[in-house]
Amino acid sequence: MSDNRPGEVQRSLESGGNLFLNKFWTGIYQNRSPLFTPISVLGIQLVARQDALIDGENLQLTPQFTLRRRYGFQRSCTSAFGSSEWPLAYFSFEELNGTVLPLVDTQTNIYSFTSSVKTSIYTKAGGAGQTSFNSVGNTLYFCDGVSANKWNGTTVSKMGIVPPISAPTRTGVFGGTIQIFTGWQYVYCYTNSSTGHVSTASPACISTGALANVTSITVQGAGSTDPQVDFVQIYRTADGGAQFYFVAEIANTGTWSYSDTTADANLNTFIIAPVAGVNNPPPAGMSLLTWYAGRLWGVSGNVVYFSAGPDATNGVGAECWPSGNNFTVPGDITAVAPLSIGLVLFTKDTAFIITGQVSPFAAPNTWQTNFGVASQNSLAQDLDNLFLFTTRGQVYSVSTSSGVTEIGFNEEAQLAAFNPSKVYVVLHRSGPDEGVFIADGNSNIYRYSQLSKSWDTVIQPVGGVGAIASIELTSANWRLMAGRPTGSGFILNRDLNTWSDDGQAYPAFGTIGSITVAPPRQVANIESVLTQITAVGTYPTISVMLNEITDNGQLPSTFVALPNPVPDPPQLAGSKSVWTRRHDLKAGQSPLPLHVQHLQIKVSFPSEAQPNEVLGIGIAHKT
Q: 238 is in which domain, residue-wise?
């Protein structure tokens, strides 16, 4: 047999030559006529891609362009979930010292986990949805549509601090030498000394008015019940002024009291009270946290909110959410994507964009129409490149430099059958394991290789699959995580040395074709199918379907197995690493046509935990 150049395959077969495919780079391509041979342009040549798969499951294209059983999923944690919870999302929180803390979000809890233990760091409130996470320095912020919180790796507390709702009271103590000519006013704030955050100030008390011979002013107010608040800060105007300057910080108690004797000249004018709601906590119902233009953004319904970030002058910018920092779009926001050109807001039908890198930002404008996603899970991002599954069931790659490409075209019908509201889209890179993974949230995953620009056959994990994510499981160890779609399962990850799913083996097959061996009004006499298979595990079953385009179940046995292969050439019978075999059509388990115009070749591996691999497939013409 000869190794023809791709552009010569068709002519070689029709003139009585042989075909040998020694690389697989097209992947599965089902959105086509079964008799159409995909074509690629290579320079000025049209390359016939005879290696295209028309069906299959659990086979992947390797970086070496072979076909191999896909990697399996193993347990990342041996602690099982309860019967009513399963993973909704995964996230890894890396502290500034390099410590990596992997997390999993369920219907009821957020857990940190190790290989043997799940530890709940937060119990979710009733009605909470999927949690979104964003880390800033050594703080992890997260919200779920009901609560907004933060975690420092040890303790969970509220994001932001609810401000005092009542003005302080003040009483003059007389007999001293302080003279107030116009009046002093006071406000107070709650603060967390560990984080440095400060709440919005309370309402101001009534001015003292002009007072003579004052010894001190006693200021009193209500303490905070928020456990993160350990101090109260007191601010005061200068005599007759309007700006509130720092006076003192005292312990947070049920009712606090402070005796102020500070002269105007001793007020700390570098620390100004955050008034008028500038340090408010995030709005109720927020989710979809993201980082853009040096600040946190979040969504509630059709409103996007943004924190003060670098605009904050007192407190932690990520926890300050001024009441006026928001924009509204016509529909509920389902996903967000921060790009260099702006912050993209997706609804189910339209994408909007907010531009600008500093406040004030430009109000949202329409970016793409008829181009929406059902949830944040439907979107994966790689810098300025997006991969998304639309509410129309299409998979696109979007680049700010090269535009929009429908990368899901080859598998359009299969992907369109996924329920957009359950889809997860993940970009994953970990050594040889790379690609865009699309899961239907139930039983199927498709992988698109960015290396070969092609799709693998469908991945069908034993036991089903729900949420997927690419996270740093341990330092510099990125894994594709997976979870079951129902309760009582385990945290799983795709492992490059595993060929079973949580210990359960799975079958794998791929169907190549249809391969046209003769043009209309002509036939070819095909004698045998040739294989090169790694000598690992069980040798596969090789079947052919001649002159048919679908195994529709209406025929007795459309695919016919070709048993009893023999070494070919016989001199290689002793190879220890490669099985080189010839499958004669005359050995078929049922009669096969003598004349062939087109055929499909099916390679089927049994359920076993082995890295079975197809190195080459050939067709030999009868001489």
A: 169-272
Higher pLDDT, 16 or 295: 295
Task: Write out the two tokens for 204.
Answer: 């101001």
Q: How far apart are the first and last CA of the chain?
A: 11
Residue 501 phi/psi, 5° resolution?
-110, 105
Spatial contact of 154 and 124, defined as CB atoms under 8 Å apart: no
Total tally of structural domains belonging to the chain: 2
Chain-wide mean pLDDT for the chain? 92
Give the separation between CA 138 and CA 184, rounded to whole angstroms: 40
- Domain boundary at 243, 272, 301, which? 272
- Tokens representing 521 are 């009004």
* Residue 529 is assigned to a structural domain of this protein: yes
Instruction: Let me know: does 78 contact 115? Beta carbons within 8 Å.
Output: yes
174-183, 220-229, 258-267, 550-559: least confident range: 550-559
Contact 383, 369 (CB under 8 A): no
Single pTM value for the model:
0.92
Query: Order of strands across the sheet with 211-222?
Result: 169-180, 211-222, 255-260
Q: How far apart are CA 515 and CA 520, in angstroms?
A: 14
Q: Among the three residues 272, 301, 317, which one is the final residue of a domain in this structure?
A: 272
Rounded to whole angstroms, how far apart are CA atoms 433 and 418?
Answer: 24
In one-letter notation, the amino acid at residue 432 is P
